[in-house]
Amino acid sequence: MSLAPSLMELLARARADLRMGVPVVLTGGDEGVLVMAAETGSQARLQRFRREGEVDLVLTARRAETLKARAYDGDVARVVLPRRADMAAVQGLADPKDDLTKPMKGPLTTRREGNATLHRLAITLTKSARLLPAALVVPVSDPRGVALRSVLTRIDAIEAAPYLLTLARLDHVVSARVPLRAAENARLHIFRPEDGSDEHYAIEIGRPDRSAPVLARLHSACFTGDLLGSLKCDCGPQLNAALAKMGQEGSGVLLYLNQEGRGIGLANKMRAYALQDQGFDTVEANHRLGFEDDERDFRLGAEILRRMGFGGVRLLTNNPAKIAMMERCGISVAERVPLRVGENPFNEAYLATKAAKSGHLL
Ligand SMILES: Nc1nc2c(ncn2[C@@H]2O[C@H](COP(=O)(O)OP(=O)(O)OP(=O)(O)O)[C@@H](O)[C@H]2O)c(=O)[nH]1
Ligand SMILES: [Zn+2]
Q1: Which of 117, 180, 266, 285 is most buried, most CB within 10 Å of its CB?
Q2: Which residues bind GTP (predicted)?
Q3: Which residues contact ligand 1 via a Cβ below 6 A?
Q4: What's the CA gap between 300 and 48, in Å, rounded?
Q5: What pLDDT does 107 receive?
Q6: What integer pLDDT is reported at residue 350 of this predicted model?
Q7: pLDDT tens for residues 149-183?
């Protein structure tokens, strides 16, 4: 076997590079581009990009909409970066934090000719790196040469496509007994995705019967709610109530999925909170940042349940999207068990928005 990294390993490396501000090279057919994340890129590297040609700032259509820029490529927009724009200007376009105080950002010209495949891949990578979904992209005539000379990670878009669409294989690393206040007979299982992304956990209460629907909760990580007791959401009380119910019934399984901030990461969630302080609701804040309402992948939860031997659940949730996704992934939902706890004056508007815009059940 070759010692060289596989494409999946190269994708993990590309995510790490982008987080560090290091450019990566993307290729597709005869074309190739240099890519750098708008959030972490440096002025010196932007100048180096400019020596290659005309630089585009790729944004999601969601972010482009706020900036009143036309998105000709469906879900992404290729904004022609003005020659005078420096990294501060780039970050002003990528990050909505000063949109209200400095609204004059246009008019922006977006590209409509050519192919956006590599640009779309650049956005996918910045999202999976949990950065702002915005990337600086410049075409290069000899992408393989550039990657070799500067020791940059190079990803071929066609080879990468299947890895980006399918869920990475999960390894069950270990499990051990952890007595909890809510249930003394609990075990914590660790699942590690093969693609180097975050680990996920399953807390198994008692010895649930695999042949009957198990009381289950798919809980997405919420550092602020679960650990700090934040009053802005209902996550902490939901986590505790779910475990308490499983403890009372004597069996259940709680998946703790590391999909902080509905899959955008904690830093972006805090950006969303800052926008909420400017008056935007939870959905609008995600959109202004360039994200969809919910960037989570619930196939993950279904896969972990299957790996643990469960085929059916009694799902503790108010979110119909979780039920639909479980069913689509072959886990039957015998019953929805409502989980309404933790309402308070600080999260009243947040919960109302989730009911009105995301279809959460009351
Ligand atoms: N982007 C974003 N994420 C948030 C915000 N408030 C909470 N979250 C995240 O939302 C997720 C809530 O997860 P869950 O409680 O599992 O999911 P849910 O969709 O509310 O569904 P149920 O609780 O099962 O009804 C967590 O990942 C939180 O970190 C917010 O204002 N913006
Ligand atoms: Zn929360």
Answers
A1: 285
A2: 217-221, 238, 260-262, 282, 317, 322
A3: 219-222, 233, 235, 238, 259-262, 264, 269, 272, 282, 286, 317-319, 322, 360
A4: 40
A5: 87
A6: 87
A7: 999 999 999 999 999 999 999 999 999 999 999 99
Three-state DSSP class for residue 288 = helix
Strands 76-80 and 200-205: unpaired
Closest ligand 1 atom to residue 222 Cα is 29
How high is the pLDDT of residue 357?
86
Domain ranges of the chain: 7-164, 170-259+296-357
Ligand with minimal distance to 255 CA: 1
Q: What percentage of the chain has pLDDT greater than the value 70? A: 100
Do 93 and 132 contact (CB within 8 A), yes or no? Answer: no
| Check: complex ipTM more than 0.85 | yes
CATH class of 170-259+296-357: alpha beta
Q: What is the CATH number assigned to the segment(s) 7-164?
A: 3.90.870.10
Is residue 171 among the annotated active site residues? no
97 marked among binding-site residues: no
Tell me, yes or no, if 294 is annotated catalytic.
Answer: yes
Which listed ligand is nearest to 272 at the C-alpha? 1
- How far, in Å, from the CA of 242 to the mean position of ligand 2? 14
Angle between helices 157-165 and 117-128 (to 10 degrees): 50
pLDDT of residue 192: 98
How much is the mean pLDDT over the chain?
95
